[in-house]
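wait is this the right file?? whatever heres the structure
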């Protein structure tokens, strides 16, 4: 184990990654010392499966509107879903409200800093719990997303990114320096997002190119590409159209307006029913549809 840790530290030099990050990091609104743990948690949940460029303006609006979990739980569900806009996967917004309620009820309105307590919150998975502990509270814990996995796989093992495994958390934990660990962690993530990308990596700009086993081996085997998830024509697209109609309507919507959104009645009905089942839409006694209140 000692030999493995030494090898890891030698290849991914923390100082090189940190210095590169300080000069090249994107200026995202939540990356400053005044951002609260609640703001960090919001940014992580919103950024899941969504480009940070799309998240940034909506995050800014949310943190100004609901600066604390206590303020957020006072908002109506319809208000929250309208504010979520077109970020996608709106069930995340519902889970955020559940999460905020638990923070208020069980943690005095303060986002917990312990990873296990964060994991116990509704809708918070392993990555998000570690990210909040690391970036909000400065805990030197491994934060492993796809970008980090790709950098470590290439630099350390000379491999293309494979299937995720639990040992990756241990390997990244072994990389963490005693000083500036959280900054190193965010630096690894940024390096994977901007330079060590899945397609067309910018190896000439990489601060650890001299140590990279993948580059030294001639960039063996292209990464296994997941087939892009089709969106056009899917139930998800239809759900999005219905949600947009409900968000933009000041009053409940009659069935005919929903029927006009899509050419396939069976698919439309299926998408509408799934929204009702997920708690993202409701039907009143007159048969009209609206966002949950």
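ok assuming it is, sequence goes like this
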């Amino acid at each position: 184990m000692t030999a493995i840790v030494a090898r890891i530290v030698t290849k991914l030099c923390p100082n090189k990654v940190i210095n590169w990050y300080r000069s090249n990091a994107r200026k995202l609104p939540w990356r400053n010392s005044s951002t609260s743990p609640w703001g960090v948690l919001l940014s992580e949940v919103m950024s899941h499966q969504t480009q940070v460029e799309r998240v940034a303006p909506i995050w800014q609006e949310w943190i100004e509107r609901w600066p604390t979990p206590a303020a957020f739980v006072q908002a109506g569900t319809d208000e929250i879903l309208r504010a979520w806009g077109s970020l996608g996967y709106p069930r995340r917004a519902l889970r955020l409200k559940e999460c905020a309620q638990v923070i208020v009820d069980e943690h005095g309105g303060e986002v917990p800093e312990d990873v296990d307590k964060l994991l116990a919150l509704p809708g918070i998975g392993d990555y998000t719990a570690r990210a909040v502990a690391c970036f909000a509270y400065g805990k030197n814990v491994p934060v492993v997303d796809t970008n980090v996995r790709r950098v470590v796989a290439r630099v350390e093992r000379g491999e293309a990114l494979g299937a995720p495994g639990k040992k990756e958390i241990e390997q990244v934990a072994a990389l963490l320096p005693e000083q500036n660990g959280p900054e190193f962690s965010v630096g690894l993530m940024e390096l994977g997002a901007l330079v060590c990308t899945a397609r067309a990596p910018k190896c000439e700009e990489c601060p650890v190119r001299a140590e990279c086993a993948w580059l030294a081996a001639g960039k063996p085997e292209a990464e296994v590409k997941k087939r892009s998830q089709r969106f056009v024509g899917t139930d998800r697209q239809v759900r999005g159209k219905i949600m947009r109609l409900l968000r933009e309507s000041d009053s409940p919507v009659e069935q005919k307006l929903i029927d006009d959104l899509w050419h396939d009645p069976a698919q439309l009905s299926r998408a509408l029913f799934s929204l009702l089942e997920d708690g993202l839409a409701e039907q009143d006694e007159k048969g009209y549809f609206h966002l949950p209140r």
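The longest strand covers residues 282-283. so i think its the right one actually
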